[in-house]
């Protein structure tokens, strides 16, 4: 299975009484698919995975698979800092019919490299669903190293890595490691940072799991398609057109600005769950100006 193009790390819309907004989630899925993205991801970091319950997460997997209905890739966030909990979520994603599971490196407990390897080996030994490793050291406190990525890439149903370490030199190292192992075509690198997607594709990445595409799926998706086609001039134009949005969506903790953007645009989003708080008023003005400049509001 190939994971490539623009996959949207969807926000989780909440109702006024703090439940998962199923109708809003379905509306957002269709909005994104209608605007040409290649995949949608539910219950990732942008989906507030840290504060949704496992029951809610499983419900979201069911909604995701049902609403996508095979039109694009349906990817389920299924990670945990507990290997046992992660296995349960990956198994549920497989049972629900998701195309792949995104599994973050376990957070807080800071596993050693061999611990990370055995975490993913246990998941692949117990399931057949394609698994994307998710490396985001700024969130987890652990950076999966290149040697361990190489070992994990040899496991049966590992299909790629969402790499959110901002060190671009690491991308070259991963590509070189895949060449040495002979599986460069079977293991895709996916950008985990919108603002680094263009240079990462030029170095061998195959797409992005994107926050920005929640807000502007058309331009983000087109930028990635141009880059994958080798039309870097057009891709660069769109990169700079979107650059202020790429930055302002991280002016406070993700997904606070992204959800505020969608609220300004009249799309389902709602509040963020505590301990996240609403966007500061001064940052709302900055966000509003970027959205107006892009003619999104």
Name the beta content range. 5-15%
Q: What's the helix-strand series?
A: EHEHEHEHEHHEHEHEHHHHH
**Total of domains:** 1
The CATH superfamily is Aldolase class I
The strand line-up of the biggest sheet is 7-6-5-4-3-2-1-8
Overall, the morphology is globular
Structural class: alpha/beta
Give the helix tally. Answer: 13
Per CATH, the class reads Alpha Beta
**Biggest sheet, in brief?**
8 strands, parallel
Number of strands: 8
At the fold tier of CATH, the topology name is: TIM Barrel
Radius of gyration, rounded?
18 Å
Helical amount: 40-55%
Low-confidence stretches: none
Let me know the average pLDDT.
Answer: 97
Quote the distance from N terminus to C terminus: 37 Å
Annotated CATH architecture: Alpha-Beta Barrel
Highlighted features:
single chain; about 300 residues; alpha/beta; TIM Barrel; eight-stranded parallel sheet; globular
């Amino acid at each position: 299975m190939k994971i490539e193009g623009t996959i949207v790390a969807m926000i989780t819309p909440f109702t006024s009484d703090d439940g998962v907004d199923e109708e809003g989630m379905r509306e957002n899925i269709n909005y994104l698919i209608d605007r040409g993205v290649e995949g949608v991801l539910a219950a990732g970091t942008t989906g507030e995975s840290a504060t949704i319950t496992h029951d809610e997460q499983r419900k979201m997997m069911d909604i995701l698979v049902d609403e996508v209905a095979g039109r694009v890739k349906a990817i389920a966030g299924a990670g945990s800092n507990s290997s046992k909990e992660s296995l349960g979520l990956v198994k549920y994603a497989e049972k629900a019919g998701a195309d792949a599971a995104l599994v973050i490196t376990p957070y807080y407990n800071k596993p050693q490299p061999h611990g990370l390897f055995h975490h993913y080996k246990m998941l692949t030994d117990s399931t057949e669903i394609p698994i994307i490793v998710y490396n985001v050291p700024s969130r987890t406190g652990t950076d999966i190293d290149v040697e361990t990525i190489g070992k994990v890439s040899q496991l049966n149903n590992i299909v790629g890595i969402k790499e959110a370490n901002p060190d671009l030199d690491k991308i070259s190292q991963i590509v070189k490691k895949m060449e040495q192992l002979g599986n460069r075509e079977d293991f895709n690198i996916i950008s985990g940072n919108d603002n680094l997607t263009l240079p990462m594709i030029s170095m061998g990445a195959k797409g992005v799991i994107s926050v920005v595409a929640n807000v502007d799926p058309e331009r983000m998706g087109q930028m990635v398609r141009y880059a994958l086609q080798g039309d870097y001039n057009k891709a660069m134009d769109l990169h700079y057109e979107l650059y202020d949005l790429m930055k302002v969506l991280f002016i406070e903790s993700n997904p606070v600005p992204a959800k505020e953007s969608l609220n300004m645009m009249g799309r389902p989003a709602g509040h963020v769950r505590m301990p996240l708080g609403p966007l500061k008023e001064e940052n709302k003005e900055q966000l509003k100006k970027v959205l107006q400049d892009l003619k999104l509001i």
